[in-house]
Design brief:
There is one protein chain. The chain has twelve helices and twelve strands. The protein is of the alpha+beta class and about 475 residues long. The strands form two sheets. It has a six-stranded antiparallel beta sheet with strand order 3-2-1-6-5-4. Strands 8-9-7-10-11-12 form a six-stranded mixed beta sheet, with helices on both faces. Strand 5 and strand 6 form a beta hairpin. The longest helix is centred in the N-terminal third of the chain and has 52 residues.
Length: about 475
């Protein structure tokens, strides 16, 4: 028994690669775990901070007291957190059932009232005007009226500043309009959290925290994991180099050689024929296979494209060219047509005259097709039994119809006797045409289906007819 130098022993080196994969996988897992741990820790911290802020916000919302959130005490509490970037509290006051809304943006300073009645400014202006008139009529009460005037002016100024702040905040936080779920947005390193307000009428507080510190944390974790891989990568490169040269190089040579076209492969030049191992045995067996394949390919190529009875192209060649013809015609001004041709009452012809005469009739019809469809870029196929298919390109839809009528007339002109075909008593054909109008992108199945429907129409209306259907955005029927 012939002994071979087995490749199994050489495959031991591949285990080093497996070890390397395991090391890389563990490093990736370690990186993911460390990153998840760091992110979770930071997120827990901001959630805890948000929960602490919800309590005073909810109390102010319940009482409808904007001053509780815009005074210095609460402002210090918000600015004490360097990660708090933005919040917006919306809800309904439990006291007066009015809408309550406060906004905070770190770059704009303390929180501000961001919800006012529609006529808020008008009411302030009316009160200012009333107080100015009182000041004119009641000069003795000047101190009190002046105090009220100053408060109303301050309120109007606060309203103006609030509107300006809202515009700036909207430009900064526009991405929140499209963000539905809570969580970290790693594009901006902003963490969004929505918490319900703790009041009777309900509300919601949207917090946004700046967690850009996580970016640096992730970078450090990645560098640490990468350093752990350096030694393993060095060993892996060394092992891969040795393995490729020693084990895979002959396999790659054989693979590259047999990747050429079959006609360009010379079996006697296969690499590895003289090797005394499994690769050598594989090369010698493949040489035998290639030799047999060359014989079969030559024979197959001879028979592959034509129908042995009629000499027309066969269904296999149709499958090779149909997609290219459809693609090509959509890039030109030509009109593409499928002719689906069927010999009328051919079964009755065979039953009456015998299969030998039936084969002779098929040959005559094939000759008629070839005599009419003569352009190099047109194709005639025997599609099966007594069915034929023509693919042709013409300048207009009418030219296609005239060409099909020419086929029908040529078959009639042969005057092949057919006693079972009424009323002419000669062999005739029915033709269904699918013509694609310029600008429409058809599929092969669509064209065959429409041509078959047209053929059915031709059969149903008396046979020995040509029916054409045009494929476009609308289906048009034209017969002759």
């Amino acid at each position: 028994m012939k002994k071979y130098t087995s490749l199994k022993y050489k495959l031991v080196l591949v285990y080093w690669l497996i070890i390397l994969i395991v090391i890389i996988s563990m490093s990736v897992l370690h990186y993911n775990n460390e990153w998840e741990r760091a992110r979770t820790q930071v997120e827990k911290h901001v959630v805890s901070l948000a929960s602490l802020l919800v309590t005073p916000i909810s109390s102010a919302m319940s009482a409808g007291q904007y001053s509780a959130l815009t005074d210095n005490a609460f402002s210090k509490q918000t600015t004490a957190s360097p990660t708090l970037y933005y919040f917006k509290a919306r809800g309904v006051s439990d006291v007066n059932a009015q809408h309550f809304e406060v906004t905070y943006l770190k770059s704009l300073g303390p929180p501000w009232r961001s919800s006012f009645p529609d006529n808020y400014v008008d009411q302030l202006d009316v009160k200012l005007l009333q107080l100015k008139r009182r000041l004119e009529n009641e000069p003795a009460d000047m101190s009190r009226i002046t105090f009220l005037l100053n408060r109303l002016s301050a309120a109007r100024q606060l309203h103006k500043e609030a509107r300006e702040h809202e515009q700036l905040a909207a430009s900064h936080m526009a991405y929140l309009d499209h963000k539905v779920l809570d969580g970290l947005d790693t594009d901006n390193w902003l963490y969004t959290l929505n918490l319900p307000a703790v009041n009777v009428n309900g509300g919601q507080v949207t917090f946004v925290f700046d967690l850009s510190e996580l970016k640096e944390i992730r970078k450090n974790i990645f560098i640490s994991a990468l350093e752990e891989l350096l030694f393993a990568m060095f060993v892996a490169v060394l092992l891969v180099t040795i393995t490729v040269y020693w084990l895979f190089r002959p396999i790659e040579q054989l693979t590259k050689f047999v990747s050429n076209d079959l006609d360009n492969i010379e079996p006697n030049e296969l690499p590895g024929l003289k090797r005394d191992d499994e690769i050598g045995e594989l090369s010698r067996k493949f040489k035998t296979v290639l030799h047999d394949a060359h014989i079969h390919v030559r024979e197959t190529n001879r028979l592959a494209l034509t129908d042995p009875l009629t000499g027309l192209f066969n269904r296999r060649h149709y499958n090779q060219v149909v997609q290219g013809e459809i693609y090509q015609v959509t890039r030109t001004s030509d009109v593409l047509s499928f002719f689906y041709i069927d010999i009328d009452r051919f079964k009755a012809f065979n039953d009456t005259y015998g299969h030998a005469q039936g084969d002779a009739a098929l040959k005559q019809v094939a000759l008629a097709l070839a005599s009419v469809v003569r352009r190099e870029n047109d194709f005639c196929f025997r599609f099966g039994g007594e069915e034929f298919l023509v693919i042709c390109k013409t300048q207009t839809e009418k030219d296609a119809l005239l060409l099909a009528r020419g086929i029908r007339n040529t078959v009639m002109a042969m005057k092949l006797p057919h006693e079972m075909s009424d009323p002419l008593k000669i062999l005739t054909v029915s033709i269904g045409i699918c013509t694609v109008k310029t600008g429409y992108q058809p599929s092969e199945d669509e064209m065959l289906q429409v041509a078959d429907q047209a053929l059915y129409e031709a059969k149903a209306t008396g046979r020995n007819r040509v029916v054409q259907r045009l494929l476009s955005n609308e289906l048009v029927l034209q017969s002759g």
